[in-house]
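ingest -> validate -> predict -> emit
validate: passed (alphabet ok, no gaps, 289 aa)
predict: started
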Amino acid sequence: MFFVVYIILCFVVGTIGSSRKIGFGGAFLWSLFLSPLIGFILAVISERNADIAHHKKLERLAELQVRISSGTMTEADKAALVKEDPLDKYKKAVHEPTVTDKSIAWIIVVIMLSIGVYTCSAQSSYMNFKIENRDAVWQKVYEIEMDSASLANTIVNRLKSSGYIEQVEEVDGRIVFNLKDFIVDYKKFGGSLMTTAFIFSNGQWQAKGEASVKNGKFRMTLIDIRNNTDLTTAGVGLNGTSYSSWSELCLTKNRNKFKDGWKGEIGMLDRAFYDYFDFKKAQVSKSDW
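emit:
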């Protein structure tokens, strides 16, 4: 999508340049290799073809004036002088109603900024994963009809009763815990042993977790997400266990955006975490027996 809009903007700038000395090709190429905004600036500072033609006509008029003064003016010169108003086409070219260069510049700036904001947001977050301090963080807000105290108590009890959670503590109004040896049920999400990455089919997941509670809402956050994969049973011809940081796997080298080729794996892990922490599915009794 970005590439298509970018090329369209280059064509728009090329069209602007077609009526100037830089020409369509020059304006288009500068826009393509630098940016449409820079190409536009180069196009508008380039002299208009109408201005060039007008200057040539003024030079011709000055030459004819010299000939009139010297008495060397020919019949052909008189015919050329009478034929048309040398300023007529120039006036039309300058004053013909068109979209102003200033308006076009603002349109290009707004479009480029919108694309930039969209691209940055799309690259720094995907589904319920986002990048914070060069780390891939999972975060999801759930809604449930329950007061804060009851909800916090419910979350603590659910975490303590889970086979994948340990070291549950309440610290400064937050519930912190460790996720350990979490197994993704890849078949539940449409995967198969042959088509699923072995970090899911043979891997276990660890993370540091935090739950924050408000009236009717709780937010689950997982950081420092890691994967341990049994390579011996993964069918890759290796032995032992592979220990990998999730951020190293799913983020680019600079850790400023998610890898395009990992969107499927990111989506599967996101659905697994979302389903596991969806405590609102449980029916909580408020009675004390």
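The chain has eleven helices and eight strands.
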